[in-house]
Amino acid sequence: MRGLTLGDAFGETWFFRPAETLETALVERRLKDGPWLWTDDTAMALSLLRILDRHGRVDQDALAAEFAGAYAADPYRCYGASMHDVLRAIGDGEPWPVVTRRQFDGMGSWGNGAAMRVAPLGAWFAGDLDTVVAEAVRSAEVTHAHPEATAGAVAVAVAAALSVRGVPGGELIEAVAARVPDGEVASRLRRATRFALSADPRHVAGMVGCGSLISAADTVPYAIWCAAANLDDVTEALWATALAGGDVDTTCAIVGGIVAARTGLAGVPEAWLAACEPLPSPLVMNPGQ
Ligand code: R7I
Ligand code: MG
Fold first, then answer.
1. pTM of the model
2. What Gene3D superfamilies would the database entry show (predicted)?
3. Of 88, 126, 182, 276, which has the fewest CB atoms closer than 10 Å, so is most exposed?
4. Residue 241 contacts residue 255 (beta carbons within 8 Å)
């Protein structure tokens, strides 16, 4: 969870800088002064973690209510365009299956929002990959009805679980792809396996996208390649991920979540930890205990 937040907040600092200075700042590794504020990626991941803590699994009605409550309490976290309608309608008492299925002319959203929040779930269930897949699907459906959004969530959750289990970077992407249903996310994951893990992330982004379209397919395969290429060093992983631009808060949230599931925050510079907006403490409330 803390790796996801660090990536989210670090990634968000690369927006709103003049485009011509952005790549130079990244190449020269010029950090922005804190505070680095976290966004919807973190807000929704926290809600999901609270539900896992409270129910031991994804109770979809409880998760929908938790998402809507967090949104109502703090809507200024740069949520995806359709999430404002979705979370307000759920908060107003409309059933989530009705709300999510009517998005985008009945297709449901294929945005990357179900993938951006799910790495901690993969770590939570890391001992059982079938459960990781099933619970990732359930966590996605509450806001994203399109199968590509669900596939993106499955891919990230499985990657986080395999990260915990110590799978080497060279095997990670294919092992993830084997668990993802056929479609654009799976096909771009397979395309990403053609790049050496020493390749320049910008070249990989040129072939599979890096989130500029905010879709799961355009975001998740790149993030998983970046994580696989830097599985033992969360700071290096985040620098590499940001280099290509795109939806940087979300690609970095995904990568931070996957890599820190293995490494924790060991080795992260003190200045980064001090700059990152703190999470609520305790992370989860469990009034029953
Ligand atoms: O998926 P979602 O929660 O967005 C998450 C992203 C992350 O980068 C966050 O940090 C935040 O910045 O937003 O929210 P959605 O609004 O469901 O999806 C995001 C985008 O995906 C939408 O704005 C659309 O551009 C696109 N999109 C679609 N476009 C066409 N047809 C999603 N589904 C469709 C579709 O069916
Ligand atoms: Mg965000």
1. 0.97
2. ADP-ribosylation/Crystallin J1
3. 182
4. yes
Tell which atom from ligand 1 comes closest to the C-alpha of 104: 36
Quick check: 153 and 161 in contact, CB under 8 A? Answer: no
Cα–Cα distance, 67 to 48 (Å, whole number)? 8
Domain boundaries, the chain: 2-18+33-39+110-275
- Furthest-apart CA atoms within the chain: distance in Å: 53
Extract the tokens encoding 289: 């205990």
Q: How far is the CA of 87 from the centre of ligand 1 (A)?
A: 13
pLDDT digits (tens, 9 = 90+) for 221-262: 999 999 999 999 999 999 999 999 999 999 999 999 999 999
Please state, in angstroms and rounded to a whole number, the distance separating the CA atoms of residues 14 and 8. Answer: 11
* 37-67 core/surface letters (b: 16 or more CB in 10 A; e: else): bbbbbbbbbbbbbbbbbbeebbbeeebbbbb
Our answer on whether the CB atom of 109 is closer than 6 Å to any ligand 1 atom is yes
Measure Cα distances from 257 to 158, 163, 194, 238 in Å: 12, 10, 24, 11
Residue 66: name the closest of 273, 289, 288, 285 by CA: 285
With vertex at residue 275, the alpha carbon angle to CA 274 and CA 280, rounded to the nearest 5 degrees, is: 75
What does the H/E/C string look like for 59-79? CHHHHHHHHHHHHHHCCCCCC
Condensed to tens digits (0 to 9), the pLDDT of residues 57-95 reads 999 999 999 999 999 999 999 999 999 999 999 999 999
Architecture of the domain whose range is 2-18+33-39+110-275: Orthogonal Bundle (1.10)
**C-alpha 79 to ligand 1 mean position (Å):** 9
- Among 70, 67, 77, 73, smallest CA distance to 118 is for 67
Find the 39 Cα to ligand 2 centroid distance in Å. 4
